[in-house]
Design brief:
heterodimer; A: mainly alpha; 14 helices; globular; B: alpha+beta; six-stranded mixed sheet; five-stranded antiparallel sheet; 20 strands; elongated
Chain lengths: ~290, ~375
């Protein structure tokens, strides 16, 4: 909504109310978002750029960065596959248990990450339900990389699916029907009709999912065991360094996560811009001129 | 050639099709006409293979296609909301059906290009091959959808409310254009519509449907002039339904006594007389036979004039030409002599489920038929 002082708008409040609200918003944002972000970089660079670089190329720090990358590289593709499959089922077909599936997809959002981590320990840990069997077959999931991947996958389940379900529901099934009547097979329809129609939504979901996969703390913390250089992801490594009063190094690693967040935000904004044009296009596509 | 035999289809407890049979001859254009919920779209989707009937058979050119998937039926289907692939250009939309063929039967790249451009010329969109659907008007999109459906050289062309989403002017142009196109291509076609004018203007034959059943199949003239059921009478065009008494081959509407030879054997029964507004003859009192009615309201609709009359407690509508109206010089509140030039009678018995509205609910333009 555009307005200028010379053109009064029916919904406008008096000037002092507007200034007060804007000022309040600016103060809150600065205090709670901008300042902490700046502090991260300030602290990280407090002992100079050399010390900063040194903290990053430290053996354990590098191991944590590698592990975080690995976890995200496994969790995100799995999530895309699951998200697409779930959204395709839920949005394009009617079947018994549909609302149950929709609810299941949302569970990771409603359960505290620590709880979900604990559940994995209870199921797959040494004392857990499957513990003896896993031990007998010499498989270690908990306090090892597989457990971290599993916990991360669980936490990020809703990201792609939640993004795609409303989009696919809005698009309906007519284009798919048109494709099948024209002689296209199921795979062809998915690849050349369904997927291109939701590609921006998928990218958006991937972005959010990636940010969460790299930044997840709670669930991963429970299943990781905090073994330095082995099962520490970046967020866990930051915590360990911090607890050892190694603030500079902690903030150096944290600054990487902060940069990831900034890149994600920028990319997200760019995608949203693109995405909204697609949605507008959808609206224009549906209605006649 | 399409044969549909004894099709039944239910969705939950709703019966969409109840024993519907239909024959469409080679090269014929047939309209499925009915109100929403009459089953016409379900029938079309069953013909396309997008739905499957609970029982009954669908035959294409004599071969059973009932269980054949939509993919293998080679039908052209045009959707009400076009269903163009929004991320593809007009060219790619039209080429899609050719590109997805198995390698053995797929035309060469050059052939596909030639055929798409030929089709786009035919639908008068050759200059827009590089546009995206969102950049086209509704009428243009519908023509792209038609070209896309024709690209696979379908055995039959099925159109679901093809002009329903367009505004009145474009709709009129497009349906004339569709008729011409059909005359040129001689393709067998079925289209769904709820607009009587569209059905009567475009189709060779009209199938009137109601509540999952076929009410009447016939040429546009037959459907309009000899409706088989009260429903068809009321659905096609404006009509007055008047309560009457049928006795020994005569129908009595108060003072009016009209011949009803079809009911010569009926000694006494409740009936309904259907009279089209333009079949009501009006005259000044004392000027011939008829019953007296009160002029309630006069509306001048272009070349014709619609008069609302009160006849023995029932409201009826009459339509006459401007010139006749000027001769009669009718004013609201005057008495006028009413005589139905032609009427058709149905006994109430046997049509219990049917509502006999004394005022037809047909749309405004149907009065212009």
């Amino acid at each position: 909504m555009r307005s200028s002082p010379s053109a009064p708008n029916a919904l406008n409040e008096p000037l002092w109310v507007r200034l007060l609200l804007i000022g309040l918003a600016v103060v809150v944002l600065t205090l709670f978002l901008l300042l902490p972000l700046l502090t991260v970089f300030h602290e990280a660079l407090s002992k100079g750029i050399d010390a900063y670089m040194e903290a990053l190329v430290d053996q354990d720090a590098l191991a944590a960065i590698r592990l975080t990358g690995l976890v995200a590289a496994i969790a995100v593709p799995l999530n895309v596959v699951f998200g697409l499959a779930a959204a395709w089922c839920i949005a394009k077909f009617d079947f018994p248990g549909k609302s149950l599936l929709t609810t299941l997809v949302d569970i990771p959002f409603s359960v505290s990450p620590v709880i979900s981590g604990l559940l994995y320990v209870l199921l797959f840990g040494l004392q857990g339900w499957f513990g003896p069997w896993l031990k007998a077959h010499d498989i270690q999931l908990i306090f090892a990389v597989p457990g971290i991947v599993m916990a991360t996958v669980f936490i990020t389940v809703p990201f792609v699916a939640r993004e795609l379900i409303p989009l696919m529901e809005a698009q309906g099934t007519e284009e798919e029907e048109a494709a099948v009547v024209l002689g296209a097979g199921g795979w062809r329809i998915f690849a050349s009709v369904t997927l291109p129609n939701v590609k921006w939504g998928v990218l958006y979901g991937v972005l959010l999912c990636n940010a969460r996969a790299m930044g997840e703390f709670g669930a991963v913390s429970v299943v990781s065991g905090h073994i330095r250089g082995m099962t520490n992801t970046m967020p866990l490594h930051v915590e360990i360094l911090y607890n050892e009063y190694n603030y500079m190094a902690a903030f150096a690693v944290a600054s990487l996560l902060a940069m990831l967040a900034l890149v994600t935000l920028a990319a997200k904004t760019a995608l949203e811009w693109r995405f909204s044009r697609e949605l507008t296009g959808l609206a224009a596509h549906r209605s006649s001129p | 050639m399409i044969d549909a035999r004894n099709l039944r289809k239910t969705f939950g407890s709703f019966c969409a099709l109840n024993d519907v049979s239909l024959h469409v001859a080679e090269g014929e254009l047939v309209a499925l006409l009915g109100p929403s919920g009459s089953g016409k779209t379900t029938l079309l989707r069953i013909l396309a293979g997008l739905e499957f009937p609970d029982s009954g058979q669908v035959l294409f050119d004599g071969g059973d296609a009932t269980r054949l998937s939509a993919r293998d039926r080679r039908v052209g289907f045009v959707f009400q909301h076009y269903a163009l692939f929004r991320h593809m250009t007009v060219f790619d939309n039209v080429a899609f059906g050719l590109k997805v063929r198995a390698r053995a039967s797929r035309p060469s790249r050059q052939e596909i290009t030639d055929r798409v451009h030929h089709l786009l010329r035919m639908v008068q969109l050759d200059g827009l091959a590089g546009r995206f659907p969102a950049q086209l008007s509704g009428g243009q999109r519908q023509r792209v959808a038609l070209a896309r459906a024709l690209a696979i050289q379908p055995r039959v062309l099925l159109l679901d409310e093809p002009f329903g989403a367009l505004d009145a002017q474009v709709r009129k142009e497009l349906r004339r254009w569709l008729r011409r196109l059909h005359d040129d291509l001689k393709i067998t076609g079925v289209f769904v519509t709820h607009d009587q004018e569209e059905a009567l203007e475009v189709a060779d034959r009209v199938v009137v449907m109601n509540q999952g059943r076929v009410e009447q199949i016939g040429s546009p003239t037959e459907i309009y002039d000899q409706p088989a059921t009260p429903f068809v009478y009321q659905f096609l065009g404006n009509v007055n339904a008047l309560a009457c008494q049928i006795r020994n081959g005569q129908a009595r509407l108060g003072a009016l006594v009209l011949p009803a030879p079809a009911y010569a054997g009926v000694t006494s029964a409740e009936g309904v007389a259907f009279v089209r507004p333009h079949d009501i003859h009006l005259a000044r009192p004392g000027d011939g036979d008829g019953a007296l009615a009160l002029v309630r309201h006069v509306s001048i609709l272009g070349s014709i004039v619609r008069i609302e009359l009160l006849l023995q407690g029932q409201t009826i509508e009459a339509e006459l030409m401007r010139q006749r109206y000027a001769e009669l010089d009718l004013q609201p509140g005057q008495q006028v002599l009413v005589w139905p030039r032609s009427a058709r009678f149905f006994l109430r018995e046997g049509w219990e489920g049917t509502s006999f509205q004394t005022r037809a609910e047909a749309s405004w333009d149907s009065a212009m038929l």
